[in-house]
């Protein structure tokens, strides 16, 4: 059957402003890939990320350039060698998964043998701000069981203490987004341990994280910007205790599944994370997050408007996707 590919861009407003150490944004700009065959439609969504040199126009171009390959029936496995990891390949890979499941009258979960589809706890992200504002935001969400706090400044010790005081019973992970330095990391690690923080994500720049191999710590450290695909994992074993798998980094669920298996083999804890996108982007990641240590799939909770239908969120519990959304 002949397949047809389309790629479009959409914008979804964020509820307020989403801020990390590298900047702020008020809308989520996403790229949607649609692959159809015999009136059956598969969809995938990606979020281009400037940190990795990706822009909307470039991702659209990369997806559309695969039209001849899609029309001749390229497989998801062959896609891994035809395209580099990143947002464009993610959108195509997830659309192919969706199309394959619908054409076969099944679900992606069934294809993967994922049977544990009980709702899972996702992190809920608190944007970077001054300590008082962050503490207020944390207090308003203290009922949530798992909070993710955006950090990455010289004065994060005060922020860590403030948010812990505001939510004494919540599990808390922090994400420094490469914002700490060799001069302050050990101090911040000590404060995090005192505050019973359970995970610290990407404290140092990916290009300057070798010192982590020499630092003793009581809090686990998770790689994000330092890890993209399966091939990156082995070199990180002496630096990190956990890895954050994001489909926009791996270039799709196919590579994400391989990366998850290898990360488990190497003894890493696993977080399945996301960019700020809609439920269509989260849906395949929810399946990937089954039996992982952390799910950070709160993108739709940060939006003022999500897709309809979207994923079902009950507080911080996210349920598996329904076929009318994806998979």
UniProtKB/TrEMBL annotation:
<dbReference type="Pfam" id="PF02746">
    <property type="entry name" value="MR_MLE_N"/>
</dbReference>
<keyword id="KW-0472">Membrane</keyword>
<dbReference type="InterPro" id="IPR029017">
    <property type="entry name" value="Enolase-like_N"/>
</dbReference>
<feature type="binding site">
    <location>
        <position position="175"/>
    </location>
    <ligand>
        <name>Mg(2+)</name>
    </ligand>
</feature>
<dbReference type="InterPro" id="IPR034603">
    <property type="entry name" value="Dipeptide_epimerase"/>
</dbReference>
<dbReference type="InterPro" id="IPR029065">
    <property type="entry name" value="Enolase_C-like"/>
</dbReference>
<keyword id="KW-0460">Magnesium</keyword>
<feature type="transmembrane region" description="Helical">
    <location>
        <begin position="266"/>
        <end position="290"/>
    </location>
</feature>
<protein>
    <recommendedName>
        <fullName>Dipeptide epimerase</fullName>
        <ecNumber>5.1.1.-</ecNumber>
    </recommendedName>
</protein>
<feature type="active site" description="Proton acceptor; specific for (S)-substrate epimerization">
    <location>
        <position position="246"/>
    </location>
</feature>
<feature type="binding site">
    <location>
        <position position="201"/>
    </location>
    <ligand>
        <name>Mg(2+)</name>
    </ligand>
</feature>
<feature type="binding site">
    <location>
        <position position="224"/>
    </location>
    <ligand>
        <name>Mg(2+)</name>
    </ligand>
</feature>
<dbReference type="InterPro" id="IPR034593">
    <property type="entry name" value="DgoD-like"/>
</dbReference>
<keyword id="KW-0479">Metal-binding</keyword>
<keyword id="KW-1133">Transmembrane helix</keyword>
<comment type="similarity">
    <text>Belongs to the mandelate racemase/muconate lactonizing enzyme family.</text>
</comment>
<keyword id="KW-0812">Transmembrane</keyword>
<keyword id="KW-0413">Isomerase</keyword>
<dbReference type="InterPro" id="IPR013342">
    <property type="entry name" value="Mandelate_racemase_C"/>
</dbReference>
<feature type="active site" description="Proton acceptor; specific for (R)-substrate epimerization">
    <location>
        <position position="150"/>
    </location>
</feature>
<dbReference type="GO" id="GO:0016855">
    <property type="term" value="F:racemase and epimerase activity, acting on amino acids and derivatives"/>
</dbReference>
<dbReference type="InterPro" id="IPR013341">
    <property type="entry name" value="Mandelate_racemase_N_dom"/>
</dbReference>
<dbReference type="InterPro" id="IPR036849">
    <property type="entry name" value="Enolase-like_C_sf"/>
</dbReference>
<feature type="domain" description="Mandelate racemase/muconate lactonizing enzyme C-terminal">
    <location>
        <begin position="131"/>
        <end position="222"/>
    </location>
</feature>
<dbReference type="Pfam" id="PF13378">
    <property type="entry name" value="MR_MLE_C"/>
</dbReference>
<dbReference type="GO" id="GO:0046872">
    <property type="term" value="F:metal ion binding"/>
</dbReference>
